[in-house]
Amino acid sequence: MSTSPLVSLLPQLASGAAHTHALGFEFDRLEGDRVRIRVPWREDLVGDPNTGVLAGGLVTALLDHVGGLAVWIALDRFEPIATLDLRVDYMRAAEPRRDLIAEARCYRLTRSIAFVRAWAFENEPDDPVAAAQATYVLSARGAREADKARAAETAR
Amino acid sequence: MSALLDRAPYARFLGLESRQDGDILTVTMPFADRLIGNPMLPALHGGATAALLELTAGAQVALTWPRLRLPRPINVTVAYLRSGRPVDVHARARISKAGRRVAHVLAEAWQEDEAQPIASLTAHFLVAEHDL
């Protein structure tokens, strides 16, 4: 997987769109099928100015975005996908004035749908600020690619 | 205008504007290039729409429970119904259950036609001061 052209695209996919660029998202790392992005703490991304804690809505945006990266990694190619739904559980407030990291893994890919879990944290995923479960719809072309991948898997 | 949205830096970053009609808030996220997630379509980033819904739900909770310093979400679920086109988005939330400790909130976001929402949100908020 580390030789895949998709991997070299990850920094661009993490922060290349106008919105992700404005939010300051950065690609962090890929380990197996787990991908991480980071949002550096910034004053204008805070929810409550009295605490300096990053806004809940920003955490949701971060988890939505990293989940998409995990889907492209599972597909091993870039193609248009759309988030179908996203559930975020907030375990605790983020630590004030700290960067947040989000990690995601696509744990199931069907012809049309990708199933993803993701976590947001400051240090380690086992002490999460928030956890997400999301589904993404693949393009029709993506469905055909998934068929091919499955056929190749069966042939091995 | 919602006091919560007024003082939240992230709401200002998104350019949110709100108006209050009776005890219902309507929040608008005016279109801006920095909200674009997919430049090819072009389409708004789903995260921006989700943040609008989440902030709208929080602001409606704050309006309903004025003694809460900051409403704390327990969980939020967003369904993306249509792609967000590069125009303004509006959102409105309603409290579907006001419990003693937990509130259940529904919200919808739309663009030109309120009957054709682009996303919907279901959320629980903690409304007791010293929980969690």
From TrEMBL, chain A:
InterPro entries xref list: HotDog_dom_sf (IPR029069), PAAI_dom (IPR003736), Thioestr_dom (IPR006683)
Domain Thioesterase: 52-118
GO MF terms held by the record: 1,4-dihydroxy-2-naphthoyl-CoA thioesterase activity
SUPFAM superfamilies: Thioesterase/thiol ester dehydrase-isomerase
A GO CC annotation given for this chain: cytosol
Pfam families: 4HBT
Keywords per UniProt: Hydrolase
Protein name in UniProt: Uncharacterized protein (TIGR00369 family)
TrEMBL record, chain B:
GO molecular function: thiolester hydrolase activity
Name of the featured protein: Uncharacterized protein (TIGR00369 family)
NCBIfam families registered for this protein in UniProt: unchar_dom_1
Every Acyl-CoA thioesterase-like N-terminal HotDog domain range: 43-125
Database matches in InterPro entries: HotDog_dom_sf, PAAI_dom, TesB_ACOT8-like_N
Domain of life of the source: Bacteria
